[in-house]
Amino acid sequence: MSFKVINGGLLSTLQDLGRLGHSHTGFSQGGSLDLKAACWANYLLGNSMDCAVIEITLGQLSLQAQQSTVFAVCGANMQMHINERPLQPWRSAVIKAGETLSFGHCRQGMRCYLSVSGGFKLPLQLGSVATVSRDQLGGLNAGAKLQTGDVLPFSPVNINKQHELNQQCVPATYYQHGYQSTHHSWVNLNVFKGPQWHLFSAKDQQAFLQQHFVLDQQSNRMAAKFSGEPLRSNIKGIVSQGINLGAIQVPPNGLPVALLNDRQTLGGYAKIANLTSQACWKLAQLPPGCHVQFTLADLANEQASLRQFYRFFGINL
Amino acid sequence: MKIEPLNESSLLVSFSDEISEPVLDLIRLFCQQLMRSSVRTAIIELVPSYNTVMLVYRLTQTDYDSLHRELQQCYQQAQRQSKQLIRPRVVELPVFYSETTGPDLARISQQTGLSVQDIINRHTQTQYRVYAIGFSPGFPYLASVDSLIAQPRLTAPRKNVPAGSVGIADTQTGIYPKASPGGWNIIGNCPEPLLDSQLSCRLNVGDTVQFVTINEREFVALGGKITVGFNEL
After folding, report:
1. A296 and chain B: CB distance < 8 Å anywhere?
2. Which of helix, strand or coil describes residue A205?
């Protein structure tokens, strides 16, 4: 039982909840950048949340089902088709043996997540299939993205009439706000004060929270870079310390960099802020050129909301 | 000691502002206490580095306030223990110091006026402590290098430093576990892998490292490979 990769697309990688518990030996976390969309994709199929999914960045992936199965896609809208039939994201669907699932260009958002009933069957490295190219780990082949000819094995599934008739979908109210077109407006990203917040001048702190930064083209799974009016901080490097998901560093050029799933584990730049988890997922869907503003969030509220998210999906995090 | 939240499920414990062996030992004991405490199952990541420990926890199993209390207790226990003499584990690592495996030896010799042999002696005569592991999987940050052979990072990093390369950056020394780009001054090569086939790391933060000189024959016998002209790669 498998999908055969006809075209790997621009950047399609196998991901899961991440390679957790190995930061202290220098391994990057990896994992789905938009955890919310990835979880919904597994949820629609009744999968466990640690099942691997394919993170499809900017589309162009095409897969041929070698056997029939049920799959789900959540996240960015990428003009999906099964053969010639168009398909909407945020729902599950049946694909029959020999049919081809293809993704076109991205219309809204940047990434979508494909799950298959029962999950992909892949070997784990340090407990995870997460593809991390900088560590040459995970995926099918030492951290490589999906390529033509790759075979993605999955478990057999008994497709009955119910599957074909009652396809599951996520109610629009759960996702519509996060995946709107954002080219012509600005997006708010919630942050907490970072461990070096107090080393920045009041003017820098204000400039960080008040200006609109522009998401840079150079952003990737490791870091999101922002352009704008540089902060004038004269902070030299700090003693290297662990870097958390969503940490916002300010290197000597004064422009903030948000560190994401494939970040290095240690770093010596001052961190002015830290994105909330939900802001990291939101950021994963923003196109380069998008304007953002950072806003201070309340810790207790964000904790309650994230805890609720983990409990809803049954994630032990 | 200071504890502050980083996000919904992580926090930073900051120890002293200084970098010193007593602080390192306190951090090591603190982490050991924590991994024996009742909250250990709620810990996802515990990342010690020089004078901080970053901790990521399971939000569904604990909360910031209970963790905060537990961390303070562990800190007090670690402080009590640190008064006794603790001997960190010593790990011996063989290094083939040569012009072929250490292309920066000659330049350091020119810049410092020390002979190549003197640089090698000064590098092996010091016992180093592992202050952090990171940057890339298994990369140990070792300190402190004899100030006479301390060298700033290269202005332009090399595109490909061979696995096992032993380098100096300021008063730190380290080993590249895998081939990677890098800007440290390379003086030799350690043929023993720092990550085993299961990807578990040979060194822990707090360990002591003793470099031991080996010759080319021993280097090759231990599986070492000489990358010809990697300076130009």
Report:
1. no
2. helix
Which of B44, B134, B199 is the closest to A265 by Cβ? B134
DSSP state of A196: T
pLDDT in tens, A279-292: 999 999 999 999 99
Chain B residue at shortest CA distance from A133: B136
**What pLDDT sits at residue A232?**
85
Please check whether residue A199 touches B, CB under 8 A.
Answer: no
DSSP B99-154: TTT-TTHHHHHHHH---HHHHHHHHHHS-EEEEEE-SSTT-EEEE---GGG-BPPP
Whether the CB-CB separation of A225 and A218 falls below 8 Å is answered with yes
Query: Is residue A255 predicted with pLDDT exceeding 80?
Result: yes
Going from the C-alpha of B41 to that of each of A30, A31, B34, B38, B72, the distances in angstroms are: 21, 21, 10, 7, 18
* Model pTM score: 0.94
* Chain B contact set for A311 (CB, 8 A): 60
Tens of pLDDT, residues A232-243: 877 878 899 999
Classify the C-alpha dihedral A169-A172-A176-A177 as positive or negative.
Answer: negative
- Residue A183: pLDDT band (50, 70, 90) is low
Any B CB within 8 A of A311 CB: yes
Least confident of A10-14, A172-176, B28-32: A172-176
| Nearest neighbour of B60 by CB, restricted to A20, A192, A307 | A307
Return the SS3 of B44. Answer: strand
> How many contacts (CB atoms, under 8 Å) link A and B?
129
With CB atoms and an 8 Å threshold, state whether B7 touches A276: yes
> What is the token pair recorded at B149?
């052979």
Determine the 3-state secondary structure of B58 from DSSP: coil
B54 touches chain A (CB under 8 A): yes
Q: Does A177 touch chain B (CB under 8 A)?
A: no
pLDDT on residue A137: 96
